[in-house]
Every structure is written in C-alpha cells, then in structure tokens.
Amino acid sequence: MLFCQVKKIIAFFFIVYSISSFSQRKYDQQFSILNDNDLYISTVQDRYYTNGLFLSYDYLSNKRDNFLLKKIYKILIGQKMYSPYKANVTSLSEHDRPFAAYLYGGFGMRNFYANNTSIQLSGEIGILGPSAKGQELMNFIHDIYGFNRADGWKYQIKDAFALNFSADYTKHINAISNENFDFNWKNTLNVGTVFTDLSTGFFSRFGVQSLSSFSNSIAFNSNFNDDNNKSYNNSEFFFFINPMLRYTLYDATIQGSFLHDNNTVTYDIKPFVLTTTAGLQFTANRFNFGFSVTHHTRKLDNDLVPNSNFYGSILLNYQFN
After folding, report:
1. pLDDT tens by residue, 185-204
2. Domains in the chain: how many in total?
3. Full-model pTM
C-alpha cells in the first residue's frame, strides 16, 4: 500500500516536470504551502502525528557582503495535530498517545555564507490545546474523505501558552560532494514551552541533473536572487535523504505543558528518536514541488505504540518578484 501510494505521487511529479519549461530568471520572494499527513501514504492509517499545515512567505534581504551571500526572512503560520492510534477512541484505556494540537505564528531568518555554511534562527508564539482547533480541522478533513468524525478530543492536552525558539546550523561538505551528489551536516536546536530537543544528522541530494549550489537551491530554501546576485533561480530535480538523531528533553504534546498539570492523558517521552525523511524536489517555472516520506521511531514511553511510524509530505512553492 505504501509503495503504491508513493509510486503514484512520484509519477505525477515526473509528468509535471517533463511538460514544464524553465528559462533563466531571478525571483526574490516566495509563498509556500506544506502539508504533512499520513493519508498521503496510506488510506487507512490516521494516527500519531496525523496532520501538519504550514503557510509561509519568504523574501530576500538586500543585506550582503563578501562573506554573507544571502539573508532570507520567513513569516510562517502553522498548525500541528496529534492523535492516538486511531481518531475514534472513546475509552481512556485506548489513548496510547494524547490528542494534541499546536497553532502558532513564527518569524525567522537564514544566512548563507561564503564558506558553505548556513545559520537559521527563528521564533514561534501560539497556543497548545483546544484553542488550536485541532478537533475542528480533523473533522473537516474526515468529512472530505468520508471518514467518521473523531471522538476523544475531550481528553486532549489542555490550553497552554506556546513560545518556542530554534536554531539550525548546516555545513556543506565539499570533500565528499560532487556534481550529482552532495553531503551536508545538519544540526537543529529547539527550546521552548512546547518542544525542547537537539538533533544532528545529514542531508544528501542525488541529482537527476547537475545540482545547484548550497546557497542557491530549493533543497535549502536558498534559491532567491535579485539584480545584485550573479546567480539565477536554476532548474532543479533531485532525490534526497535526511536522517536525524534527536535527543528530546521535553515535548508538551506528549507530556502536557509544564505551565499546568490538569491533563487527563499524558506519557513520558523516549529521549532518543531516529527520524529519516526521503523524497524528491523539482522546479517547474515559478513553482517548486516536493514530496517526501518520513519514518520515525517511537517518541513516547508506551509499549502499545509501534516502534516505527510513517507520514507523507507535499510541498508547493510559488516564486515571484
């Protein structure tokens, strides 16, 4: 089932790419929509990290020098939803994971440097709990697919203020990269009232055609250019893999917020989680497309939860000036 779903989506993207044309252009702004959902890889699975929806606007700053190649700003609105192994669980004993929803807005900036490194800093502010409208959105999605409405959200993680900060450091490794393959060391730190964790791993591209540079690729959301840049928004098509080992100190969607202790269903976390994302991305004129599948190991201390879980992601970017 998983293989058939993925094969159909990849075939669709190949068709879109093959009928599109691309000439050398420069775009310095972008609207994006990203949706994570396990329904993209299975018509029966609807569990754990069950949906994520993110809308963002990115734009290129005029600030640069001999060392700073690009500074890119991002404004983001996002929502994440979590559920037990199924959406209809009326008994507390069936809640192998808490229902939870997180709604937030964020702002960030990412710098790309001449030594093939990037640093991203961002902050988020929002709400965790019923005010994040997870139940309402899940029922809306279920109505579209003809599924039963979710039951069990009355036991979800309670309302709590959300404030999170993150930092990302990525280093392109020239020594083991070439025209059609690259290797990038990636590190992420999250600190806040919802997530606190540290991750390290790598991101590698396998190019159908020659890869664009680290500082000018859709892989790193760095393909922004204006009249002051010598480079263009190039045509791209590549597959990628991104394994990350995460050490988790705190996850309010599982443990409940430390700001209060009145949650009905909570669990302890598993400190070490291995997450691997693999997929493809490509450009088609002003549009950038992406599809990926993410596998992760168990995130909470409950033997009823399987040792692994999957979800799919679809990305669409539109670039302009």
Report:
1. 999 999 999 999 999 999 99
2. 1
3. 0.91
